[in-house]
Amino acid sequence: MALWLLVLIIALPSAGFSGWLVLFALFLVISALYSLITGRPSWLGLPRRKSAGAAVGVGLVALIAGGMMLPATEPAPTAIAPFAEVNAAVTTSATPSPSPTPQYVLLEKCLDDGESVVEGSETFVCTLDDADVLVWMGEGDSQKLVAQRAEEKRVEVKRVADEKAAAQKAANDKAAAQKVAAEKAATEKAAAQEAAAAKAAAAETARVAAEQAAQKAAQQAEQEQAPAIQPLVEVPAPYYANCAEAKAAGVAPIYQNQPGYRAGLDRDKDGIACDK
C-alpha cells in the first residue's frame, strides 16, 4: 500500500489531476477486486465483500471520470511545402513516320491445292486451311502446315494401325485361350470317361470274380456234403492159353460177353468158347 501511495504522489506533478485520478481508480479497483474474489482484506483493509463491491463501483466511476478529464491529443500540424514553379524548356524533334509495309494483294482466286504464284519477292502457295478452304498462303507457312498435317496423318495412321494390331492380338489371344480351354475340357472329359470305363471294368471284374468265388465255394460245399465215391479199378480180363486151362479154372464154356473169351478158343465161331 505504501508503494502505491508513493507512486500516486510521484505521478501527481507530472500526470496532472486527471492522470492521478486514473491511477488512483486503478489502484482502488484492483484492491477491491482482490478482496471481493478472495474474501481477504486487501491493501486498503476492506473488511467485507460488500465493502469491496462498493469500492469497485467507486473505482470504476473514478476511472471513467479521470479518462474523460484527460486532455485530447491533437495531431501535429503537417508542414506544407510551397509550390515551386518549374519552367522547363521542351525541345521537340520531328520523328519520321515509318514507311508502310508493302501489302501484296492476290487478285486471282485460289483453286488448285499446291498451286504457287509469285508476288514481288514472295511466293504464295494455294493451301487448304484449317476450315478446309483453299487460300493463298506464304510458302514457308504452307510448308509448315503441310508438314504438320502429314505428321498428324502419320500419327493417326499409326494409331489406327496400332489399335487394329492390338485388336487383332486380343482376338488371337482370345481364340488361343478358347482353344486351350476347349482342349483342356476335352482332355478332362476323355480322362473322366476313361476313369469311368476303368471303374466299370474293375466293378465287372470284381463281380465276375465274386460270382466265380461263390460258384467255387458252392461246388466245394456240395463236394464236402456228397458221399465219397470210390474210383473204379479196371481189372484186366483173364487170359487162357487153351481150353484145358479154361476148364481147369472152371470157367468153360466161356461166352462172348464174359471175361476170358477170345476168338482163338471159339473154334466153330458160334460165340461160345471151349464148349466141346
From TrEMBL:
Q: What InterPro entries does this protein map onto? A: Excalibur_Ca-bd_domain
Task: Provide the Excalibur calcium-binding domain boundaries.
Answer: 239-275
Q: Which Pfam families match?
A: Excalibur
Q: Which residues cross the membrane?
A: 6-30, 51-70
Keyword Transmembrane appears in the UniProt entry: yes
Keywords from UniProt, A to Z, are: Membrane, Transmembrane, Transmembrane helix
Instruction: State the protein's name.
Output: Excalibur calcium-binding domain-containing protein
Origin species, per record, is Arthrobacter alpinus
Tell me the lineage of the source organism.
Bacteria, Bacillati, Actinomycetota, Actinomycetes, Micrococcales
